[in-house]
Amino acid sequence: MDDAVTTAFAPLIGLPCWSVERGQGSILSLEFGSPRLFVREPYVSTSSSPRLRELAARRIVKPVGEWNLFVFCCHWRLIAYGQVLADDDSPPAQIEAAARTMDGQRLTAFTLDTTSRQAVFSFDLGASLTTWPCEGNDEEQWSLYLPAKRILTYRADGLVSLGAADEKPEQAVWRAVARSVRVP
Question: How many CA atoms lie less than 13 Å away from 134 in the CB half-sphere?
Fold first, then answer.
C-alpha cells in the first residue's frame, strides 16, 4: 500500500490547490488539477430533518478538480508565515480565512509518518497542513479522490484503502502502510 499512496500523490506535486473551503464544522476540502463540472441531481430524502430533505431536493452544480483532498474526522493545523493560522478547533471564520491563505499554493511535498500517523501537506508559499488522529477515534483522517472515480482513504489506525469512489464502506479493503512515505 506504500506504493499506492506514493502513486496517488505523485501527480499532485507542483499543482496548485484551488477552491480551498471549510465544509461542515472543521472539514477542509482542496481541489487540484483541471476543473470539471460536478452535477448532483435532486433526490427524495427520507431524513427526518426538514433541512436535509430541502437540500436533497436541490440540484448541486459546482466546479471540482481532477483530484479532491477531503480532510475530516481528525485534528489538523494550518501553519503559514511561521504562525498557526487555524486548527480544527478554531472558529469557522478563522478556518475560512486560513483556507483562503492556502488557496492557490502549489503542493511541494506530502509526508505520511506511520509512527505518529501524521500527514503533512507542504506548499510552495510556506503553508503547511498537518493532520493527526483524534484520540479514541479510528475513523478516516482524509480521503484523496482520484481521476477514474477512485478514492484513497487513510484512517487514524494507520490503515489505507484504495478503491472505487462508489464502493460501499463495508466493501473497502484496508491495509497497513508498512513504512513512512514521502513524495517527492
Answer: 14
Longest CA–CA span in the chain (Å) reads: 48
Residue 153 has what DSSP assignment? E
Closest of 74, 75, 73, 71 to residue 143, by C-alpha: 71
Who wins on pLDDT, 1 or 157?
157
Mind listing the pLDDT tens digit for each residue in 131-141? 999 988 889 99
How far, in Å, CA of 17 to CA of 27, rounded?
Answer: 16
Q: CA angle 183-80-145, nearest 5°?
A: 45
Nearest Cα to 70, choosing from 180, 6, 151? Answer: 151
Q: Quick count: other Cβ atoms within 10 Å of Cβ 99?
A: 21
Which helix or strand (DSSP H or E) is residue 34 part of?
none
Give pLDDT, residue 124: 98
C-alpha cell of 28?
A: 477542509
Closest C-alpha among 132, 129, 183 to residue 157: 132
Q: Where is 29: in which H helix or E strand?
A: strand 28-32
Instruction: Give the chain's radius of gyration (CA, Å).
Output: 17
The residue with cell 452544480 is 61
| pTM for this prediction | 0.91
Domain ranges for the chain:
2-32+66-183
Helix (H, G, I), strand (E, B) or coil at 165: coil
